[in-house]
Amino acid sequence: MLPATPPPVLKLYFSRMCPYVHRVTTTLHLLGILTSLAEGMHSSSPLAHVDLIHIDLANKPEWFKRDINPKGTVPVLIIPNGNGIGGNSVTLADSDDTTAYLLQVYAGNTRTALLRPQDALVRYTQAVPLLDTWNDEYVPAFYALLKEQDKAKVPAAQERLVAAVRAVEAKLAPASEGAFALGGGELTVVDILCGGFLARLPVLKHYRGFDVPVAECARFEAWRKAVVGHPSVQGTLAPVDELVVAYKRLAGEPTV
After folding, report:
1. Do both 154 and 247 map to the same domain?
2. DSSP the chain
3. Mean pLDDT over all residues of the chain?
4. How confident is the model over 171-210, as pLDDT tens digits?
5. How many domains does the chain fold into?
């Protein structure tokens, strides 16, 4: 009998501080491939092992941009032997693409992946409009407030983010259908793609005094709590005090 083929060893260049990396690490944790964010190999999964290489975003090593990703951004996932594509390793350096790849290859036909043919209507009528609003309105407003160091301009930046929160909330499934973005009690790819930023709202609280207006945006707040409280989001989230320190290079000094 031939020995069983060993699971592939994926190589992930990451930073715990990056919300885009958090998409990938949440996915790996959800799939049972990743169990720890310490550097090295951490997996007992028969699907794959993952080798973690931490990149200091404030002091990126020259070899990373030269040899791994000329843009100098994380996450970067290297798939050995191309997973059957020509026998060469394949590099993925976009968090959306990497998340979709991992779910499609390792999650099977589950609702988490939203890849089944019967999910097409949900994907294009709910998931895509929500993610468009998230990427076009919420993420820019998040960074605008984070980087705004003029106290006189902070209130306007806060209002911009509140408006984005309302716009996202309008795209969420009704609370009666479940806490997560598309309803139900199961984390979906939409929640994964948004979770890293939801988990970093305490950073805005520290630097800009921002809180989600719960009375006005109860559905958004319930969603935030459900996503941030999920074991795979929590299991790959850096402590808040470490996030606060790391984000100082973008935020400067607190304005509150």
Report:
1. yes
2. -PPPPPPPEEEEEE-TT-HHHHHHHHHHHHTTS----SSEE----SS-EEEEEE--TTS--HHIIIII-TT--S-EEEEGGGGGSTTS-EEE--HHHHHHHHHHHHS-S-TTTT-SGGGHHHIIIIIHHHHHHIIIIIHHHHHHHHH---TTTHHHHHHHHHHHHHHHHTTSPPGGG-SSTTSSSS--HHHHHHHHHHTTHHHHHHHH-----TTT-HHHHHHHHHHHTSHHHHTTPPPHHHHHHHTHHHH-S---
3. 89
4. 999 999 999 999 888 888 999 999 999 999 999 999 999 9
5. 2
Q: How confident is the model at residue 135 (pLDDT cuts 50, 70, 90)?
A: very high
Model's pTM, two decimal places? 0.91
Same domain membership, residue 140 and residue 72? no
Based on the domain organization, do 79 and 186 belong to the same domain?
Answer: no
What is the Cα–Cα distance from 104 to 253, expressed in whole angstroms?
A: 42
Residues 68 and 192 in one domain: no
| Distance, CA of 48 to CA of 56 (rounded, Å) | 25
Average pLDDT over residues 41-46: 65
Give the neighbor-by-neighbor strand order of the sheet with 90-92.
Answer: 40-41, 49-54, 9-14, 76-79, 90-92
